Amino acid sequence: MKEKGVYLKQLVEKLKDKVGTDMTSKGFKEMALALSDATKEKFDAGTLKKYTQYDEKDSEPRESKLNLIAKFIGYKNFRTFCESSEIDPILESILGEYYCYVRMSKEKEKLLRSPVKIWMEQGRVLYHLKGKRLNYEGEVINHDGCLFILMKSAKGRKSFYHIYRIGSMEAPQVLQGIFSGVSSDFEPIGGRAVLWRSNESFESLTPQKIEIKSMRQSRRKDDQLLAGYFKEKSLNNLSIKDPYTFGPDDL
């Protein structure tokens, strides 16, 4: 394990990147203001600067304050932030909030948009997808340039598998992938999935069904790109033929 001073400096560096500032007097003030606004707790620019110069002989920083900073930048608490420094940097870089998009297999010309949160807990990177009826969770594994996520509903009644291509890219804005699972009619389904990073808090993100036509007509470039990507059903949705005999004649 590293010395605490190293973790504190890394914490402030991550905070700097989150706020989009630098390690100047003005930058520390901007970081303190952003933290105070987001957490409703008072943060001092001088204290943040001291964290970057911390020595083991100094008095211990308040753990509650460190937890708030860690949560602000996407970690559960300061302890999990410290644990993250020992993990795959690509996995660490994907922590945050997203929207997951898939084309619905049953409803014509509609996308299903689901809020996603990726966070770290006890050295593991976890994935939470919020649906209208069910929530799903699973661990994210980075292997062979892809992110593998087997997510299950809270009571384990349903599950989906997502695989996203990431290569060696850190902190991607958009990830393309494939999903597979079972429909509400208990039929195997699969298709394309897109994970799009959001700057909003997870609590403010909402699951929604969106008509592809309305996205094509949107003035937002992001919506138009998604509408074009998911336009063709044959490219985005997979299903099997109805099995009657479970023999060759079913094919």
Question: How would you characterize this protein structure?
Answer:
With 251 residues, this protein is α+β, with helices and mostly antiparallel strands. It contains 9 helices and 10 strands. It has helices spanning 4-19, 25-39, 45-51, 63-72, 78-84, 89-93, 212-216, 221-229, 233-236; strands at 96-103, 110-121, 124-130, 135-143, 146-153, 159-165, 174-182, 188-198, 208-211, 237-239. It has an 8-stranded antiparallel barrel. Helix 2 crosses helix 3 and helix 4 crosses helix 5. The longest helix has 16 residues, at 4-19.
Q: Output mean pLDDT.
A: 91
Strand content: 25-35%
Q: Order of helices and strands, N to C?
A: HHHHHHEEEEEEEEEHHHE
Measured between the Cα atoms of the first and last residue, the distance is 57 Å
Instruction: Identify the overall geometry.
Output: elongated
Unreliable sequence segments: none
Strand numbers in spatial order across the main sheet: 1-2-3-4-5-6-7-8
Helix count? 9
